[in-house]
Amino acid sequence: MSSRPLQNSDYSPNSTHTAVDVVLDTAYQNINASEWAELFATASQSKVKEFIADMFAGKHVNQSEDRPALHSALRNLSKSPVLVDGQDVMPAVSEVWQRIDALCNKWVGVTDVIHIGIGGSDFGPRLAIEALAHVPGIESRGMRMHFLANIDTAELARILARAQPNSTRVIIVSKSFTTLETTMNAKAVVAWLQNSGCTKGQIARSLFAVTANIPAAKDFGIEEENIYPFWDWVGGRYSVWSAVGLPIALQYGFKTFQDFLAGAHAMDLHFKNAPLEENLPVIMALTLLYQQEKNKVKAYAVIPYADALDWFPKWLQQLDMESNGKSVDRDGKPVKHSSPIVFGSAGSNAQHSYFQLLHQGTEIIPIDFIAVREPMSDRPEAVAHHRILLSNCLAQAQALANGKDDANPNNVYPGKRPSNLLLLPELNAFYLGTLLALYENRAATLGALWNINSFDQPGVEYGKVLAKPIEQALASNQADIAASDNIDAVTAARINFLNAKN
Ligand code: F6P
């Protein structure tokens, strides 16, 4: 057996950049100095700097919906004015912070919280609650935090079997307050409270809403003092920094929620002020652009070597693919590049799943490895286990990059499989905020490079519209539905098949 010796590695180790104590190492992208210069020139020509300035200044960068994308204001702990159409939004943002703080102090005797929301109204808080659960030294109220997103009643049944109705609080989270999954699940949970003998007054005190549509929340029956607003200048998938992140404050305390915002704010300041050549979100975006140009990549993987971040790839899938999964640019013209398919899960588990394909499959799939310097629990085994976790992470990146020759083709690793390494000093609320903001700002940079509006999502609407007549057809229980304008022959046959069983 022969294997390529490591000293033949093509990679230069001088390729790290640091911001907010987060280290990005791009060595295994194998981008040389003149290629970097070209990439930064592309970023300049694409007016990335100007786009960043416009975004933070509240310009209507979400042009199709004619509004700003100012999630950065939600974590602007400096409270410096942020103008939306001439009006400073920071007083309203600060008022919500005060109300969250006050609510944390009043939140006593609660055993269960049912957070009802889907997509951007679910992933962020769900990720944060799980990511911070075992942070050494974190103070936790230890409530059962249930996240109810799916219209499938299996999730509802699982949650209601565990929750204690008399000491449950319900938070209905929906920017639009019209999302069917959320409103139907909310009605089901209210019915459960009623059927469990809770009085009208008890139920009113138990129900909370987080929304940009206050009239709809009131119509639903939520008391005004229990409604926490956010605004149309915050995209759903960018909303965890608003009261959508309430579970973080309620479970871990307002100080922890503020730390989460502070970490993101620090990354925003870096993104806004650092030159392109030192700007972490920009550099990460450029590595992807480079791989799209060079290796025609259609997918990339994100592998956090942190079990607590197992939800991170799911959060990122919405962020990247809902933001940038588009075929036309801001001018309606076909794009050359857009979001690749994003997938991933926690390492080292992922190694025992799809890493075979990453090493030896026919596609080149760039990877973001995310590692954490400090162990992520205070178990006595933590140091020894963590060393193994880190060594696996480093070994995978090296194996993918360098490959290995062998006389037997089955055992050849082709190598030259690019990856980034992101190293967080520790996993706590601050650096979780930093990490999420890094990827949000990377998505915005990619939008600028590809000339895509990263802040709308027209592609998710059509299926919702078509579901309505199909639902009616299913409700009819008739097995002789004919094809029509909204239901084609294939779908009509499927409906008839389903209805025939009734
Ligand atoms: O289905 C797409 C979407 O509109 C997402 O963009 C959003 O995060 C999710 O639905 C939930 O929307 P809402 O918060 O309005 O219920």
Structural features:
alpha/beta; globular; Rossmann fold; 502 residues; 5-stranded parallel β-sheet; 6-stranded mixed β-sheet; 17 helices; 3 domains; binds 6-O-phosphono-beta-D-fructofuranose
What does this structure look like?
- The chain has 17 helices and 13 strands.
- The protein has 502 residues and is α/β, with parallel strands linked by helices.
- The strands form three sheets. It has a six-stranded mixed beta sheet, with helices on both faces. A five-stranded parallel beta sheet has the order 6-5-7-8-9.
- The protein is globular and about 70 Å long.
- 44% of the residues are buried.
- The model has no long low-confidence stretch (mean pLDDT 96).
- 6-O-phosphono-beta-D-fructofuranose is lined by residues 118-121, 174-176, 179, 182, 236-237, 322, 457, 460.
Could you name the CATH class of the largest domain?
Alpha Beta
Strand content bin: 5-15%
Helical stretch tally? 17
Task: Give the number of DSSP strands.
Answer: 13
What ligands can be seen in this structure?
Answer: 6-O-phosphono-beta-D-fructofuranose
Distance between the termini: 63 Å
Task: Classify the helix fraction into a percent range.
Answer: 40-55%
For the largest beta-sheet, the strand count, sense and barrel status come to:
6 strands, mixed
- Which CATH architecture of the largest domain? 3-Layer(aba) Sandwich
Q: How many individual domains? A: 3
Shape: globular
Query: How confident is the prediction overall: mean pLDDT?
Result: 96
Helices and strands, in N-to-C order?
EEHHEEHEHEHEHHEHEHHHEHEHEHEHHH
User: Per CATH, what is the topology of the largest domain?
Assistant: Rossmann fold
Radius of gyration: 24 Å
CATH superfamily of the largest domain: Glucose-6-phosphate isomerase like protein, domain 1
Write out the strand line-up for the largest beta sheet, numbering strands in chain order.
Answer: 1-2-13-12-10-11
